[in-house]
Specification:
The chain is α/β, with parallel strands linked by helices and 270 residues long. The protein contains ten helices and eight strands. It has an eight-stranded mixed β-sheet with strand order 3-2-1-4-5-6-7-8, sandwiched between helices. The longest helix is centred in the C-terminal third of the chain and has 20 residues. It is globular, with a radius of gyration of 18 Å. The N and C termini lie far apart (37 Å). The relative contact order is 0.18.
């Protein structure tokens, strides 16, 4: 399927890049991404992936837009207060780019729906703000062999890494067990700078574009940490896959999705 004249003009700044080109843009148009969480991370990621021309974007969130969200969740506006976040985000993405298909999924990720949902997409983006969801995303993607990008933010700090099931360490390799309830403060308790969400969410979108086009080097096996107070970024080389990882080792003990008994950091996206 060829790109139309209007699409060629719309994506011209991608197409002139040797790392993407016409063939890379066609790959984006023929690809699908599931964004779990339409909050602080999912907002900028959704905007940029829609603008980039990802052919099919699923946006999943069971929460509604709250006034406190508007400081960082830039895909929503004041008139969206009280609306489901997935539906609000889908409407904005469709307005940005009429050449893509957007599916709003107005529900939370669970052990029951996780594997079926992620298996329908080429790439998954973790925009959630609680450990229960993060372990569910990791396990669903590993079990279904779907690559995904993890992101997290708090205060002035953020982190991001990309997981390629079977190739790179997964989230459980790095964090075998969730922290005990109360050990990590929530965003509502500790605060978060809105622009930090923009930085990390945009980097997550960039990882998705790179994976789908084959451009550059992914953050697989590496953890990028951002300190916005000092404006320092550092990349930590991670160990190889944990041979005793309960989900991605050669002899896994987790073979079906389960929900960790953790304290939530909130409803959905940060």
């Amino acid at each position: 399927m060829s790109l139309s004249k209007e699409e060629l003009e719309r994506y011209s700044r991608h197409i002139i890049l040797k790392e993407i080109g016409y063939s890379g843009q066609k790959k984006l148009s023929g690809s699908s991404v599931l964004i779990i969480g339409a909050g602080g991370l999912g907002s900028p990621a959704s905007l940029y992936l829609a603008a980039a021309g990802i052919g099919h974007i699923g946006i999943m969130d069971g929460d509604t837009v709250d006034r406190t969200n508007l400081q960082r969740q830039v895909i929503h506006t004041t008139p969206d207060l009280g609306r489901n976040k997935a539906e609000s985000a889908a409407e904005t993405m469709a307005a940005i780019n009429p050449h893509i298909h957007v599916t709003a999924i107005p529900e939370f990720l669970t052990a029951e729906n996780g594997r079926k949902l992620v298996s329908q997409y080429d790439f998954v983006l973790d925009g959630t703000d609680n450990f229960t969801a993060k372990y569910l995303i990791n396990d669903a993607c590993v079990l279904e062999k779907i690559p995904y990008v993890h992101g997290g933010i708090l205060r002035f700090h953020g982190q991001i890494m990309t997981i390629l099931p079977g190739q790179s360490p997964c989230y459980r390799c790095v964090h075998p067990e969730p922290p005990s309830p109360g050990a990590v403060p929530t965003c509502s308790q500790a605060g978060v700078v809105g622009a930090v969400a923009g930085v990390i969410g945009s980097l997550q979108a960039l990882e998705a574009v790179k994976y789908l086009t084959g451009a550059g080097q992914l953050l697989s096996g590496r953890l990028l940490m951002v300190d916005a107070l000092t404006m320092e970024m550092k990349t930590i080389e991670l160990c190889d896959r944990d041979e005793e990882c309960p989900i991605c080792s050669d002899s896994p003990t987790i073979t079906e999705l389960r929900e960790e008994n953790t304290e939530l950091c909130g409803g959905t996206g940060q």
